[in-house]
Each structure stands twice: as C-alpha cells, then as structure tokens.
Amino acid sequence: MALGLASLLGSSGAWAQTSIPRQADFIVAVVNSEPITNQEVQALRKRMAGAAAGRNVSPAELTRQALEQLINEKAQLQQARDNGIKIEDEAIDQAELNVVANSQVTRDEFRKNLAKEGLTVKAFRDQLRDQLMLTRVREREVEGRVRVSDRDIEQYLQEQIQAQGGQAPTELNLGMILIAVPETSTEVQIKALQDRAEDVARRARSGENFAELAKNFSQTIDKGANGGAMGLRPADRYPELFLNATRNLRVGGTSAVIRSGAGFHILKVIERKQGQATLMVTQTRARHILLRPTAQMPQAQVIARLKEIRQSIVSGKADFATVARQLSQDGSAAQGGDLGWTNPGMFVPEFEQVMNGLRPGQVGEPLVSRFGVHLIEVTDRRNAPVSEQDQRTIARNALREKKLEEAYTSWVDDVRSRAYVEMREPPQ
Fold it and tell me: Is the pTM of this model over 0.70?
C-alpha cells in the first residue's frame, strides 16, 4: 500500500496541471455536501493518463476512475477532519522541499514554474496539506488493523520455499565397514575378500553390534573408529553408490555388500532426517556516496555536484571508492562506500527502489532520500540462502505489506459506503 509521500507527491508539472483553467466548470458530484467539479475530474484524469501511458485505457474509463478517486478522497478527508487530524506548517514545508528536490531545481525556480502553469503557492500547499492529511488518516485507520502471527510466517515461508522449487534436504548418517581389495589382488583373493564381507554383513543383519564389527573388520584409514559412523551430513555429500544401496532401508537397516574401486562395503543407516529448507533471496552488494545539504551548499547544488562526480566515475576519470573515502558523509566512507551484501528491505524504500533498478557495475543518478543525496553503484548480485532470523523478518515484512493492502482496500470501501454521494452532471 502506497502510504508514503513519495507515491502521493508528484512532479511540479503534475501538480500544476490541476490549475489549468477550464472554459466551463460545474459540479459533477457532491460528497457529504462537499462538491467535486468537472475541472477537478479532468485535471486528475490528465495526470492519470500520463501514468497509464501504454496501457490502452480509454479516456472514458480514465474519467470514471478519476471521479471515483476524488469521491473516495473527499470522504477520507472529511473523516480525517472529523477525527481531529491537523497538519502542521512545518510538515507542509518539508513536503514542499521533497517535491522540489525531486524536480531537481531550486525552490525559487520551482515556484516560478508553478506560476507559469497558473498555480499559486497557496493552492499548491493546500494540495500538499490534503495529501498529508490523507496519509495520516490512512495510517491511523489502517495500521492498527494489521496483525502478523507466527503461524502466518510459517505458512508464508513454506509457500515461498515450495514456489522456489526448494526441497528440504535429506541428511544421513551412515555407518560403513570396508573390506579393502588391493589393486594386485587375484581373482581367488577377491573371492575370499568378498566371502568375508558377506559374512560380516550377515552377522550385522542378524543383530550383532555394527560398531564392534567395524572396529574388528573395517579397513578404513581410521580402522573403524566411531563404530564406522561417517557423521550426519546432507545426502548429496555421499557417493551415489552409497545412496542407491541405502535408499530403501529404514533407520537401523544394513545394506547388502556393494563393490567400489576401494573394495567391498557394508553400510548401515544410523540416522536419517529431513533438513530444514532455506528461503533463497536476491542479495545486492552496493556502495554509495552520501552528501548532506547545508545552508552553504543547498540540495540543488549537492545534486549538481554529485552529477559531476558521477560523470567523472562513468568516464573513468575518477574511482568510486576513492571519491567515497574522500567525500562521503556516511559511516561506510572508510570502506569506499561499500555497504556489504544486503537482503531485501534493509534500506529505506526510496534508496532500495533505485538500487534494485541498477545493473551490476552501473552508477545511478543522484538520489534524494531522508538522509541526504546519494550516488549509488551496484557492484554485484547473487541468490543466497538467508538465516532463519532473516527469513522470518523478510516474511513478516512481506505479510505486513500484503495485509496493509487488504486492510486499506477494506477501509476505503467502508468509508465510501458511509458517505452520502450525489451524482450530478457527467464529467465532460
């Protein structure tokens, strides 16, 4: 569910489109006595058309979607006001700075662009206030509805592992007695050694202690130490010959005599258990350079500076790690900006979204986050198993996001159902 400002605040052009004068304006709907005008619908429809480019959505359908969205937002804003939610001027100031940063111009230039499009600063800030209020009421009403249980996590992990084609690996502990066959053995000698192996196998199957038989007869390097037990290990670490011989044996069962290049083997299944399946995730290794805007170097100048640095790095005139050590204002500077291998969800969304879109070896454009301005390079990617604790963290985050989406949809429907909506003239 997109509750953050990044999804709610568009570029200056998108906001400015809401102010384009209309030759004729009229009321198309009323939500709890608050009107929605044709101008509002058409402005939103144009913004949605830009986002829907290439999806072949008809203008009529976009108009319908725009009207529905405005009805829902009006009802939600009214609920926010009824709940006493207020937005401080400081929050609006910060939201405006975020929009300006995304436009990569100075604040004065941004406001001049608004004026060129016919939108006043007050109207723009009123829109910001509404969007912040929508964010607050949605978070307040929806967040509390979401609960992720341990049972949910277990089920999610099982489903994800199965979807990846993962099978919990079988682990085996086999005991072995080896009757060695020297390379120079004659046929008669080989037959005698085979007879000895058959006799040992018969005694093991008849109930004699396998560990004692291993100590007395096995000709392995350790002379049957540990009772011939080779230790619990993943099944694929045993020779295929051993796996085939013991596949149909129960724990405690002894195999028939089998022959290898080393000699004759008698195997016993001491322990067999199903290992724990592991979730695989795509890990990214990246490095970054972080510069924080100051009064002496505003954000626009920081972005311009990092653009110059990026060009130098891409052209081969500068080394990323060297620049990071010299300039980066992050704790990773001493490591050349290296952030190590990271699992999904470890960084703030705006950082991770850009990082995930980069190929190994690619340096992204300057990115503005809540911490400052970053220059990111992805150095490598891999699929890797994660620890049990990390698996549960990933699962909890994914389930929470999914349940937030479901709870949000339910809440929107509930608010809409309690609102009085009167449809007037169709939008034109």
Answer: no
pLDDT, average across residues 73-88? 89
Measured between alpha carbons, how far is 252 from 116 in angstroms, rounded to an integer? 85
Contact call for residues 83 and 139 (beta carbons, < 8 A): no
Number of domains in the chain: 3
| 16 band by pLDDT with thresholds 50, 70 and 90 | very low
Q: Are strands 170-180 and 233-234 parallel, antiparallel or unpaired?
A: antiparallel
Q: Look up the domain containing 337 and give its range.
A: 280-385
Instruction: Indicate whether 143 belongs to any domain.
Output: yes
Q: Which residue has the tokens 């924080």?
A: 292
Res 125 pLDDT > 80: yes
Residues 13 and 114 in one domain: yes
Which one, of 416, 410, 423, 390, lies nearest residue 160 by Cα?
390
Does position 343 have pLDDT exceeding 60, yes or no? yes
pLDDT of residue 14: 39
**Which CATH number belongs to the domain containing residue 355 in this structure?**
3.10.50.40
Determine the average pLDDT of the residues in 333-346: 91
pLDDT at residue 196, rounded to an integer: 95
Three-state SS at 40: helix
Residue where one domain finishes, among candidates 238, 258, 274: 274
β-pair partners for 171: 234, 273
Q: Is residue 161 part of a domain?
A: no
Mark whether 372 and 239 lie in a shared domain: no
pLDDT digits (tens, 9 = 90+) for 271-297: 988 766 667 788 999 999 999 888 778
Residue in 154, 148, 114, 104 with CA at minimum distance from that of residue 16 = 114
103 inside domain: yes
Measure Cα distances from 378 to 11, 184, 335, 354 in Å: 27, 59, 15, 10
CB 130 within 8 A of CB 77: yes
Mean pLDDT of 176-200: 93
Tell me what percent of the chain is helix, strand and coil, each rounded to the nearest 5.
Answer: 50, 20, 30
